[in-house]
User: Fold these one by one.
Assistant:
Number 1:
Amino acid sequence: MPGGCSIRALWIINNLDGVIFSRRFPVVERQWRAACKTENESSNEDPVKYTALPVLPNDSEIAAAFMERKKSQGSTRGYGIRVTQSAQGSDSWVDDPIMRHIISLRIGAEEEGESYLLWPLVLHVRGPYCVLALPLIEPRHLKVYSRLCCRSDCGNAVGVDESISSLLLDLPSITGAFMVALAIGDIITGDMVDPEVVVSVSPSVGGLLDSLTGSIGISGISSRAKPVAAPVASATPSSTAAIGAVASDAPKIGSRPLDKDALRNFISSAMPFGTPLDLNYSNIFAIKANGFSSSDVPPTDLKQPAWKPYLYKGKQRILFTVHETVHAAMYDRDDISDTISIAGQINCRAELEGLPDVSLPLTGLSKAHVEVLSFHPCAQVPEHGVDKHAIMFSPPLGNFVLVRYQANCAFGPPVMGFYQLSMVSEDEGAFLFKLRIMEGYKSPLAMEFCNVTMPFPRRRVVSFEGTPSVGAVSTTEHSVEWKIIPSGRGLTRSIEATFPGTVRFAPWQIQRVPSSKSGSGNMSDGDSDVEAESANNMVNVEEFLMEKMSKNLPPVDLEEPFCWQAYNYAKVSFKITGASLSAMSIDPKSVSIYPAVKAPVELSTQVIFLQSNHLKS
């Protein structure tokens, strides 16, 4: 069986648990059947035919099995780890969080003795859709997983030969299936936006002449229309983090989902016969729109990769953007520590003629405490070190993500303080914010904007009273928004901000919902007489009001951990430029190109924060 990645089938399931799109690849399926036949003939004990599905199930069988799994596992992704509700043979019985993303389905009724195991199914949840991708594996791998599902011990036990970690490491096709599922998810939601690559107007290494002549950003791929960057607009000068125009090749799809014909066209072009070749929608779109001409002659001495269908022609340069999203949660409690983590990526745009190789050292790994590190398929990592990785890659056309990583933050939260909310009556709440912003941060770090949102998902906001010490306030139907730093006004110094006030809601209406076995268990509806009686027995009025307003709320889905009750947190979002907060960086002077060519190298940095400040109890 080939060692690359091949996909047996794809399914897209909507939020009503119905299959709205499916695609099977007969060529790959024939390989699976041949492998199963060979495995059965070579093994007299534990034949794979007792666990493997002889043919792919139809859409209704997939929908029924997916619905049954979601019911038994508590949510779309499932528990992941073994809990009291876990049944032997289920994904959560394996007791590994990865089983929330690589799932199995039981096809057929077990009581009738005709139950088959379909695994591994890569699950990608995007908006209201669930994308399932079934990669081609060897039958022996399915045997191993079927044994793991029924083993009495849990987790990756020490001294055990078989474990889910070692099994997945032996299946590179799962990585390809994840890439396919991610690409399909972007298409069906219409979110086809290339990674941001920010252009700085200030001179970089070797780029002084280009900046003075104004030639930066004006380039072409050939004489015909191809997916090229439009001339960029200059931004405020900054050597490391100027925010200028974003160079992007992707056709702007908008928020409208693509139709099934567009999805079929993408699949047939990106992964013919089930083998992924190039999942870049920009390249697929360009080839379909422009085709090839006599001037698009591939080089005779080098093999042109699938991710670079056209060769670049024009002024040469390389752009890097370190883009980090920092997630922080501040609880203001002694028993729960605050958390802060970084999800980052290094975006690249290499406008280089021919098919050159680019090499560079990636530094700051030990200081950033990098936990997860992955690379674009075009990249190779010949040297691994504690604090430095050497990367060599043949860059594709347009913008692409060279490196993805997860790391710790080298700084404290840029916004610190607390948020309190007290219900003074059933329809009125008093709140207080006290925040310290950019404390300990110095130039070149600058905050571009800072917004605070108080969400009230189950109450309609009627009005509010209060004046913040800085910024402006606005309301929506279910939230109060405080713009501390408006967009476009950078902040480079530390400030303090306070905001006391009250918010009034429309009269509370009890929402009777059916009881649920998931989340926190059954929710009782209770009548007003019981509520009034309990109110007379309560000394704490606030406690009574909170209980009354939260008792009719349905249990939260595991995918939304911050929406448990009517009110419990405030969300702070802001953007910082100037440097990465993980210490991950690229030295433009260390970037080398082979064959050698004079091309300026520019580096920029963007940091976006998503911070939650939980209600203090």
Note: The radius of gyration is 28 Å.
Number 2:
Amino acid sequence: MGNWIINHGLTSFILVVWMGINIFLFVWFYFFYDLGPQFFYTRHLLGSALAWARAPAAVLNFNCLLILLPVCRNLLSLIRGSFMCCGRTMRKQLDKNLSFHKLVAYMIGLMTAVHMIAHLLNVEWYNNSRQGVYDKLSTALSNLEDTDSTTYLNPIRKTDIDPQQIPTYFVFTTIAGLTGVIITLALILIITSSMEVIRRSYFEVFWYTHHLFIIFFAGLVFHGAGRIVRSQQTTDPVHNVTFCKDRSDEWGRIPECPIPQFAGGFPQTWMWVIGPMILYLCERLVRFIRYMQRVTYRKIVMRPSKVLELQLVKSGFKMEVGQYVFLNCPAISQLEWHPFTMTSAPEEDFFSVHIRSAGDWTDKLIDIVQKLPEGAQGPKMGVDGPFGTASEDVFDYEVSMLVGAGIGVTPFASILKSIWYKFKESNPKLRTRKIYFYWLCRETHAFEWFADLLQVLEKEMEERGMGDFLTYKLYLTGWDQSTAHHVRVRFDQDTDAVTGLKQKTHYGRPIWDKEFEQVRKENPT
């Protein structure tokens, strides 16, 4: 339990607070509309669907305020920098920004469904009241004159067409109805294209449909301007609901029952979302400025198994270990930005990324680079970043265990290089005396560049008489008959048959209890 609290306590606390605010807003506004005396006559027409429409709207306002903040990556970097004095746990929450973004999106989807269903019922009941289907009071309320386009209660004013067509006419000719349809369609497209199967296989579909958020927010700002939910206004003399509800024939004829007056509520959604919209606009402006900054190629290397290494130089660029950048190549797409973990160390005068062929964008980039003449500069590249919480706390421990799996091994290239630079320079901030590195992957071909890095480190450490500084274990979790035969034939060689390293590759997965026990025995203090 103690470990769980250390690892997940703050995340859980933030989620509980977020869910608590959602529940509070829903309950508060539900009872506000379900019990408020100003909505007595409105409730008579709509019943509990009024509260069921308005309570989700309040929750939607709150979550639409939040949805853009987790994707303002430059804002998160600024906040992360100001949290340097705080604990890593606090800073690490910012790395869960996309998980929180998805969670908020699920809440928006759920509340939109409830809000929409309730309002569809409301339109139907408004129409029935207008046609005189219900009781005398409902008919009287629906027939109230619309003297200044403000005093009516029932927003359905048109009666000269087929009653069956009125709800459809109302939905597609009013501000609230039309913007509601547009918002819902945009949201459906955004959510469905965000499913993992589409995002991984058709990234462009996900990327471009996600930009429908512009239409979503524009519709959201104007949605409340229709003011279809109306409340009773105070008149002089006062219209006493308790006394007058059963005397609709006498409204305006006796002083105790003046004709009730109604007005729509002031639109509030824009007040919730205007701040995040301005912040996101600033975010896009910063990205554009960074995109315009010149990036030069120091070196372009085509590694085996279609892995492209780009060594880039950008004025004023500062990175830390374990961080990532977003790359944009206008020759492929003006809008698409893709994240790549940096494999260089902060001590180097350039930053590098290793790009594996894994989709349309990467395939096109590799194709462009392969066609370049010898020594030529690559295509124009926009760089945004660096982002992510740096892994510099690795340097705070005498013994560090690093575990990388598959493509997740890339940040460790940066960490291992940086540790080596610090060691060579006798950096006083480096406390590390021993590193255990575990690398698990299904096949090593796509990561031959990483094996080359380990080979260089292995050689340099032997030359300095520090062979014990780095203990690494490679685990191959997938192999075929040809690999097994290749290993059998070369089993008695000094170097590994798969990687060419002195450390032999293990097959299968690590037995972690044994590994932890071994590390504990070797480092008793």
Note: The radius of gyration is 32 Å.
Number 3:
Amino acid sequence: MTTMVSLIGLVNRIQMACTALGDYGGAHNSFSSLWDELPSVAVVGGQSSGKSSVLESIVGRDFLPRGSGIVTRRPLVLQLHKTDEGQQEYAEFGHLQRRQFTDFSLVRKEIQDETDRITGKTKQISPVPIHLSIYSPNVVNLTLIDLPGLTKVAVEEQPESVVKDIEDMVRSYVEKPNCIILAISPANQDIATSDAIKLSREVDPTGERTFGVLTKLDLMDKGTNALDVLEGRAYRLQHPWVGIVNRSQADINKNVDMIYARRKEREYFASSPDYGHLASKMGSEYLAKLLSKHLESVIRAKIPGITSVINKSIDELESEMDHLGRPISVDAGAQLYTILELCRAFDKIFKEHLDGGRQGGDRIYGVFDNQLPAALRKLPFDRHLSIQNVRKIVSEADGYQPHLIAPEQGYRRLIEGALSYFRGPAEASVEAVHFVLKELVRKSVGECQELKRFPSLQSAIAAASYQALEKFREEGRKTVLRLVDMEASYLTVDFFRKLPQEVEKGGNPAATKGGNPAATPAVDRYAEGHFRRIGSNVSSYVNMVTDTLRNTIPKAVVYCQVKEAKQSLLNHFYTQIGKREGKDLAELLDEDPSLMGKREQCAKRLELYKKARDEIDSVSLVR
């Protein structure tokens, strides 16, 4: 008996916990598999089939709502606990724990009120079950699920779909292979028209899971009986049919005691000329014992499968908890450690992007290998070094006194003007790399799974990273412009040393052989060839500088921006975090409410499954 109590009680406790988490029969979600593995007894029947009377006869108490039309509009999971003789009967609801009902008329009212809380005061139905436990010396240990009565026509205040909705709900329970079907059919109707038998035949064609119950035997026409059904000739099941004699409406109106009604039922079968030979296997008391024994044997057989589902679910939930993250400590030191660990996780991903472990870092090389050279090629040196512009700049540099040998000031102005064009590509390289680094920060924040729990910290890290990148960009911009300015501030001496030699080559050789220098023909400083030669010389110098900057600008950008981002992206953030108080740290670890809800649900399920595993282990030891 102890084992049976433990097994049936265990199943009911797990079902109650599943319902509290939204995981119940008919609930189509990823966590309803445990419920599906739990053996249960579903009570199925058409409206006015006597379904409620059968349940009340088994309980021995008047406690179910009554009325016309659809009265049961939510599944009622009813667990019966047998107590010692002399103890007071009472009931408890799963949604009102620790409150005991000794007045069963209040139980009826609470069932009705709890139904209305979900469905409203209409004839709507809901798949969310109500859990009710009854403790009494007049019951056997048993769990039953009372389902809405099958109907063929929608009544007032009900949608036309209610007929199908009820059948779908009932079917969602009884089609599961671990569900025992208690099919209620009235004896004063042809068994071929029974809604319960029709549905059970569809989901359990062999009758292996179905117990047939025939009600209203005392209301059959005189001279007729239901022996063909009860003895299995009209419709055979694997389990014996059980006949029930319910209280009449007059008895109900007179509040006839259920214990007295049971005695009358026993007397009816014992004295019946038709059913006397079956009396020991008829009646609500026999039905309850039969179901209790069968349910206990099924549960015992299913324990290995239940254990397997529980262990698998625990592994999945543990993995889910690791993914969602464990709860954060309230200790400031632990919170600071968590923040630093999350920063390191982000920083690791960011570095992987730069170093090639993840995509994105190659775009920086693309700036140096493609964008910068293309920008340098597009600089307007041809226009700047055109003959007209060279003549203009050289003439302006000479002023009132023309140059004697080489136009040094003209050369300087031409070169400085040309070198100023390098500022644009240099700054553009800095901006392009800055944009890439910002994108990599954004991607790294998004790819850091651990940070998704904490939107505030996620935003703070992103903001700190962008702030640091701005600082690195400014330093990079200053450095590359310095490189350009350095080239303009000091021209290579060798370039100028070549100029007099070139002028001499254009003079009279006699000047080098003791001739009269005054007789040497002067180079015409207004000739087109003279300015073309100047432009060509400046172009050569600019090309030399272009080659230099093509190599040094990337070095400066990497040193000032990329290297600094790798080494000290969050250094300032670390300093600021170290100065924060516990309250400020807690604000950074303020999680996304939806994520907190998911983890809370996951933790509750994990606790349920572990507790269920422990209870199954303890029951197995008792066996």
Note: Confidence is low (pLDDT under 50) at residues 1-5, 26-31, 502-522.
Number 4:
Amino acid sequence: MENSKNSSSSMEKVNFRTKILSRHLNQENPTSNYSILQSFPCLSYNPPEFSEPSSIFDTKEMRKLMDGHNLQERDWLFGLMLQSNLFNPKIRGGKVFVQPDYNQSKEQQREITMRRIGYLLQNGVFESWLTGKGPEDELMKLALLDVVGIFDHSLAIKIGVHFFLWGGAIKFFGTQRHHDKWLRDTENYVVKGCFAMTELGHGSNVRGIETVTTYDSSTGEFVINTPCESAQKYWIGGAANHATHTVVFSQLHIDGKNQGVHAFIAQIRDANGNICPNIRIADCGHKIGLNGVDNGRIWFDNVRVPRENLLNSVADVSPDGKYLTAIKDPDQRFAAFMAPLTSGRVTIAVSATYSAKIGLATALRYSLTRRAFSVTPNGPEVLILDYPSHQRRLLPLLSKTYAMSFACNYLKKIYVKRTPEMNKVIHVISSAFKATASWHNMRTLQECREACGGQGLKTENRVGQLKGEFDVQSTFEGDNNVLMQQVSKALLGEYVTAKRSKKPFKGLGLEHMNKSRPVVPSQLTSSAMRQAQFQNDIFCLRERDLLECFAAEVSLCQSQGKSKEYAFTLNYQLAEDLGRAFSDRAVLHTFLEAEASVTSGPLKNILGLVRSMYALVTVDEDVAFLRYGYLSTDNAAMVRKEVAKLCSELRPHALSLVSSFGIPDAFLGPIAFNWVEANVWSSEQN
């Protein structure tokens, strides 16, 4: 009986398949009795502007606050790039998008990067970048570099090496003779510069570089030499293909005595692109990102340069070979010499923050139109941003990106108005913010990539590709962990000085150390946690306590006969926690300053929500608050619940908050808009 049923069922399947195949071969339409596919309504794209609540605050005013300066110049440059086919415009979903073509070889990417620079040069983008005077010109230069970086990190780095590193070295390490000879030609790309500091054997430890320069008084020339393979200059942007000149960092030996690291101008190619005698150059090869930058390696085989090519703002050598400097202490001389290099950390912190904005604008817009699953039987699918778990993934990162924007604006402001007395402050703050912003960017891009699902893997949607492009920021211009240790050492120096002199703390935001120790309420409430006073208190408490602990541990090690440097090494964990505590507190203070500058009620209200999210998610995620006892476990649980509550309150404002970034649609990925239309069959045929 069972066999009979199985046989009957098999015959029915055979007959069914035969009829289907017959209709297919005869191109017949299926009858209603043999309908293969049931009709369902297809998914369609619904712009979030039509479905999301209207903004309760002015997004244009928020953009002014976020960008901080030169909005008109930024928009001009966005428009300039959209006008040229050099920026690779593509139509997806009825919209034009511009982004580099990463399918190109590294050679092609390098070539198109130089062509784009030529276009920008021709249109006056770089006017006054080195010959301008005053903070206004510097801020405009930084604003335009922000815009370039939003399009392509390779293009921004290539320009940054030429203007900020090579050009900055000439301007700040050099004197009038160098300015007159090199700055205008650099601004006009008559010379193409690079910056040869990093070596195969030394990166962050600049004082340990092995390139050696001696002086030949008989000819009035310096002789630059690469004495061993570990001394080859490495990762030098621009060196592999395009640079004609470089600033070489080298140990200067005079009369057998090493006077420390100095900088020299050396020509490495002639006007026709031929490598100069006694110079050897090799390519660093393909990278995980930034393949539009021609990173190279350089060897100097007793290369002779005129005495005048020493950049001599800190020290000089007379024609007869005498070493001349007003700063006799080698440590102070090195500090003065390195002080101007903060521009790299400033621009990295800012570009990392804009990269995070691209990721969040793309992922959040996508999550406002993409649906998945239903929460009721036969109910509609739910927008993925309406899931609390998705809100928790993205909205805290959005708040941190707002916080970093205000921090970067503050950093730029003190940088362009710098004085010699501010060098230490700028060094410490730029080190902290560079590390914090670049770490935040990488975490944000990874979360945004995952939040976009498979679409996050597509290069044209930008988020995944940006991870490879920006990964380098964690280690160039100073390894982040090393920078954070430098921050902690500087804080310890301030602490020791204040205690020994019995004078109040002053500078680096440490004035809170002069007040009584903050007290955290034994039982936190929602209203208390949202108060700026509580947020400031708990951030200051963490920084204060960690600084005191760090000082005590270092002092204990020294009392046991260990050196100060060894004591730092042993207490690296405290140093790392302290560096983060300083950075988080400093960022919060810049947020509070930005908030205080606002008069509009609606703008102030939303900023209060975003700031509370930034502060509380920092408390929730950093185990230091529990580890060192600043929070009880009950209060930590309350903070966690408050973060979830803030997510739901910020959810209606997600679109307005990312729209306030002011990034034109064309500079985001197609999935930020009509991702259905962007993937239709006809788009493949075109």
Note: Residues 193-323 form a domain with the Butyryl-CoA Dehydrogenase, subunit A; domain 2 fold (CATH 2.40.110.10).
